[in-house]
Amino acid sequence: MVEVLRLRDGPASEAEPVSLDSFLDDSDGGAVRIEAGDDVERLFPVLDRLQLVEIDFPRFRDGRGFSSARMLREAGYRGEVRATGDVLVDLVWFMQRCGFDSFAPDVPLNPAEVEAALARYPHVYQPAADGRVPVWALRHG
Amino acid sequence: MYRYDQYDQAMVDARVAEFRDQVSRRLAGRMTDDQFKPLRLKNGLYLQLHAYMLRVAIPYGTLNSRQMRKLAQIARTYDRGYGHFTTRQNIQYNWIRLEDAPDILGDLAKVEMHDIQTSGESIRNISADQFAGAAADEIMDPRPWCELIRQMTSFMPEFSYLPRKFKIAVIASKADRAALRWHDFALRIVRNDAGETGFEVFAGGGMGRTPFIAFRIREFLPTNEIFAYLQAVLRVWNRHARRDNIHKQRMKILVHELGEKEFARQVEAEHAGFLARGANFPQAEYDRIAEFFAPPPFEQGLNDDIDLADPEFAAWAERQVVAHKAPGYAIANISLKPVGGIPGDISAEQMDVVADLAERYSFDELRATHSQNLVLPHVRKADLPAIWRALRDCGLADANLDLATDLIACPGLDYCSLANARSIPVAQKIAARFADAERQARIGELKIKISGCINACGHHHAGNIGILGVDRKGIENYQLLLGGSGDAETSQARIAGPGFDEDGIVDAVEKATELYLRQREDGERFIDTYRRIGMEPFKEAIYG
Ligand code: SF4
Questions:
Q1: Interchain CB distance below 8 Å, A66 and B10
Q2: B155 in contact with A at a CB cutoff of 8 Å?
Q3: Which CATH architecture does the domain made up of A5-138 adopt?
Q4: Which helix (H) or strand (E) holds B170?
Q5: Residue B457 to residue B462: CA distance in whole angstroms
Q6: Per residue in A14-50, pLDDT tens?
Q7: What are the boundaries of each domain within chain A?
Q8: What does DSSP assign to residue B84?
Q9: Contacts of B22 in chain A (CB under 8 A)
């Protein structure tokens, strides 16, 4: 059983994620699993049926999942976005900024290290999916 | 030039702390080198043949005397007393110990420098015209845009684990001194008929084993749309690039596979989305940054004459000095290509001299160029003799800008773990062959570029004469390429024929220059003659 580290409140979704194709074919469940090559835009028409989107990182250098997550948030999806696979603590800040709010990596993360990593950088240089105000706005308050 | 405020400083300081933590985890054995590798690469730290190599960013090639002195001090304290300026306007140190790297970053942060995203699959340090703010032919100083883009591409969450590296260049003149279209993403600042400023945008260029010249993806992009457009380009590439073969993941390959039109269509669609969602930088932020690049207080009414009585000085001035936009001022190029030296290398003592000269004579500004030289961008013509004497006294007064001995060479097999062949000894032999001042002057502009392997760090694809080191059955062998250029009429060099050994390649280069001298017409540079007569006559002269 992979441990899930969640950054969002409320109960975790019980739904079992299915592949993108199966989800789009027929699904009553509210959870889908996005592989690195999947086109997340195919979900846009059905976002209101979803509570959980799992996005997989087959190798941590494969950054496609960052775009998938941020695009879901841009499309208005408010449910859980969970990173799975090869997720290292050094990625979680970027992941959070792209809209991930839970992590279930192959190798469990140390919660204290995650907390430290998320607090490491005091500012952000650009807007993303996390609503943080970039320095270009702070400077001109 | 730009100065950090509390925000910039806090980000760089946080980076130093993060890296210190990562290095200590690695040294304590809590991370394998495999896990550590992408993290150190985000900080410009490579594991080379003999030691770690550290690459330090010099944003758009601009630095001040305090920073140059710090680079000298780092060379003395942590390296072997010298540094190496690269073809990306950065500096790198070849003999770094891993344990020292966090302290070096800490030292750099004290002078508003860093090594963030100088290697790995990152958005790299931005290149610019080395004469920005000084060139007589620019429509504006491109560096405010470089700095704004530097900030918006730092720690970009969606685009920090890209398929490959991503290189950006910005210029603001017709003449191209930055090899613009050899970049993944390149901007030329232009004015449209209505007098508005915008970017002419190029995408999909790059060297490496599959060279492509960037195509023009947008004729005119309003400047305030750059953040949206850049993200659109990055997103299309990040989502659709191959991830199964490291040699096919640069953006140029995706552009090639999709076709320019389809790539542009996808980018425009994403761009429209980013624009619609808003979240753009405020104009006030551009204005804030632009103020740092206001022209220095040039003196008025200066004399435009240069006293050329001393023939040695005259030879240097005629070659190394370039027209400046302000009357009475000049741009002085400092050669890092002494015959017998290593292209781009500079000692700590020389760095200190150059820093002093910048402080005293050039409004405290220096530039690094992609041809691995340095520039004093704003000097009074009257001060040129004093500058020349100081350079001469420390061995930096070579007069060879853009000539045969001003060659570009990558570190090659002397340092680089990927190399097939040595580049530096070949560069030295060619330089020795053409060392005679009269001879190189007679040949005129000739850009020779040498790479020790197919990765093309020495830009051989863009060389008027390119040299590529290959490994043939365990023996170093050199291919000769002709006709490349990074100027406004960008072209890719083509292979001339079978390769040579180390001495053979020097002879082949000489034969090519001899043919050019026989064939050239009035005012033609080597590249012009090549473009007119084509490869065949050169082949005959070299192999016939
Ligand atoms: S071109 Fe090859 S040998 Fe030269 S520095 Fe690059 S990787 Fe190393």
A1: no
A2: yes
A3: 3-Layer(aba) Sandwich (3.40)
A4: strand B168-171
A5: 11
A6: 889 999 999 999 767 899 999 999 999 999 999 999 9
A7: 5-138
A8: E
A9: 90
